[in-house]
TrEMBL record:
This is SDR family oxidoreductase. It holds the Pfam family Epimerase. Residues 264-293 are annotated as: Disordered. Residues 3-216 form the NAD-dependent epimerase/dehydratase domain.
């Protein structure tokens, strides 16, 4: 299958591209810079110059592909306005991809986040979050799944709060960066809240399986660790960096403060049973041992 991939040179995307190429697919990768284009070429993919805002380029990429995997996101959480702009840009790109695929029966795999389910781990049957700081992403992906009724084999791989590799990535990576800047390895509240996690190489396998197998309109959970206590995550970070570990106000984390303070474990039992996905790489707490002081 010739696959158009957005975000193909990031932490997750580079793993997805390698997984696709290693399993007989070819890749056309959206590349917003010369550096990204070089990285795509070095990985064995064909670069297509442009970003998420370049909708004509995205249409051209979809037209050349047998299937699409969407991973790109601005990842600017510096202010509520920056988050809103990133969500709006992504939503427009998703809508554009979907319209180009209507009636083709081609696969379209979008990335999303695991939802919040009060008092229990969320499951694949729970709806995406459509409110809150990044609720727009949930609404956009829900629309992607709705394309199932319009001749698109659409699916969503829901990523946990931390997708990691070599001790970096996701919410845990943000905690590490903030700890380096502030001199404290912090956690919001009492630190008992739980975050799910997955190694990027394991997540990449699920994206491939969804592309190849997922029925239209389905959601899947790329969750290896159902929920690590944030206090335990901060403790490893603090030990690796030689910093004190303590509670800090949720406001420390800016627009994501509310999310950082929420208990949000997630299950992947259905995904493992239905798609035969089985994580094999190190857990988050094991991988954080790779953090360099």
């Amino acid at each position: 299958m010739h696959v158009f991939v957005t975000g193909g040179t990031g932490l997750i995307g580079s793993a997805v591209v390698a997984e696709l190429l290693g399993n007989g697919h070819t890749v056309l990768a959206l590349a917003r810079s010369d550096a990204s284009a070089r990285a795509a070429e070095e990985a064995g993919a064909e670069p297509l110059r442009g970003g998420l805002a370049d909708l004509d380029v995205i249409r051209a990429g979809v037209a050349r592909a047998d299937g699409v995997i969407h991973l790109a996101f601005a990842n600017d959480f510096s202010s509520p306005e920056a988050v809103a702009n990133a969500v709006a840009e992504e939503s427009a790109a998703l809508a554009t991809i979907g319209e180009e695929l209507v009636g083709s029966d081609r696969p379209f795999v979008a990335c999303s986040g695991t939802p919040y389910a009060p008092g229990r781990p969320s499951t694949e049957a729970d709806p995406a979050a459509v409110e809150g700081p990044v609720g727009g992403r949930g609404r956009a992906v829900t629309a992607v799944l709705g394309l199932a009724s319009r001749g698109v084999r659409s699916s969503a791989v829901r990523l946990p709060r931390t997708v990691h590799n070599q001790g970096t990535g996701g919410f845990a990576g943000l905690l590490t960066n903030i700890a380096r800047q502030s001199g404290v390895s912090g956690y919001a509240g009492d630190g008992e809240q739980r975050w799910p996690a997955v190694h990027a190489l394991d997540a990449a396998v699920l994206f491939r399986l969804a592309l190849e197998q997922a029925p239209a309109g389905t959601a899947w959970h790329a969750v290896a660790d159902e929920g690590d206590k944030v206090r335990d995550i901060a403790a490893v970070i603090g030990r690796r960096l030689g910093l004190p570990v303590q509670s800090v106000p949720p406001e420390t984390y800016g627009p994501l403060g509310q999310i950082f303070a929420t208990d949000q474990p997630a299950s992947s039992a259905h995904t493992r049973q239905a798609l035969g996905w089985e994580p094999k790489h190190p857990s988050l707490l094991e991988d954080l041992e790779n953090i360099q002081p």
